[in-house]
Amino acid sequence: MAPVTTTQRTVLTGARVVLPSGVVENGRVTVDGGRIVADESAEASTVDLSGCTVVPGFVDIHNHGGGGASFTSGTPEEILTGVRTHREHGTTTVVASTVTGEMDVLAQRAALLSELVEQGDLAGIHFEGPFISPCRKGAHMESLLRDPDPAEVRKLIDAARGTAKMVTLATELPGGLDSVRLLVEHGVIAAIGHTDATYEQTIEAIEAGATVATHLFNAMPTLNHRAPGPIAALLEDERVTVELINDGTHLHPAVLELAFGSAGADRVAFITDAMDAAGFGDGHYDLGPMAVEVKDGVARLVENGSIAGSTLTLDTAFKRAVTVDRLSLSDTVRAISANPARLLGQYDRIGSLEAGKDADLVVLDASYDLVGVMRKGEWIVRPS
Ligand SMILES: [Zn+2]
């Protein structure tokens, strides 16, 4: 039998395409060999996406799991289930977040997760805790919290063998500023979060090199007119990107709008902070050592009812941003793809629909519901 000649080159046609330069109606995206390419060959097969919008694949820098699986405690197979679940919801790049645990346990997790980073399934590791404030512990176990001793911070990033991307810490604690400097020296993002810092202390941490606010507003002092606290310091400094959880539970839409308007679209990263129940369902779960109950899609600690991560996926965050928050498509793409890709130092490869980059993209229908996901040129969800 004669071999069937097929072309690998595919052109997506007819859709509205969100490019860094703006939104193009009836645009084209050409994919070849897992990459986006500029030229359009006559040999290409076409996929008609009329009525749809094509945006870059989503990049989530703060995510604890999904699909019933935990990045903090799951086996490699379970972790991959979580990664696959988020991919099916448009997140083509996932950083795995841990929660507070024993130092030895965290070091072991780092070693395990680093293998998944090396094989390309995860984009890096984010350590959330244990170097956080007992006053703002959220869903982290208080007895395991500790001050950010640079030597211990160093142990964790060493255990991650070059795959640690970010550490969330309460920089006002003893050793906090030295730990920020150590992280910066090692090319790891220092994120201010689960913090009880004052406005002035937060400025010191930014001066020391901290560049991200972990889920701004959540697990930190509120904005007060006489004591502006970390929120004002983080919003006003152009060096800082603020994470926002756009699920309608963690932040009131008016507060999201305020933060977005204040920081500007280039300094916001939409994250999920998802736990196991994301893309899975209500029920009983564990978040590290803490028991969590998920009801109506809201995850709370059994112990005290504190919000324990989210069940958000980024396709839902995207739809919410354009339909409820009334953000433009371009601004939403910045917050959900481009800015987090830049933070990871990977904007040369992901985060926008440009020739030479990975063919990571999401197809949305007229209601902004997800109907297609492509990752490195392979359909994860094929548009019907
Ligand atoms: Zn988290």
Automatic annotation (TrEMBL):
Belongs to the metallo-dependent hydrolases superfamily. NagA family. It holds the Pfam family Amidohydro_1. One of its GO terms (molecular function) is N-acetylglucosamine-6-phosphate deacetylase activity. Keywords: Carbohydrate metabolism, Hydrolase, Metal-binding. Its EC number is 3.5.1.25. InterPro entries: Amidohydro-rel (IPR006680), GlcNAc_6-P_deAcase (IPR003764), Metal-dep_hydrolase_composite (IPR011059), Metal_Hydrolase (IPR032466). This is N-acetylglucosamine-6-phosphate deacetylase. Residues 53-379 form the Amidohydrolase-related domain. SUPFAM superfamilies: Composite domain of metallo-dependent hydrolases, Metallo-dependent hydrolases. The keyword Aminoacyl-tRNA synthetase does not apply. The keyword Nucleotide-binding does not apply. CDD domains: NagA.
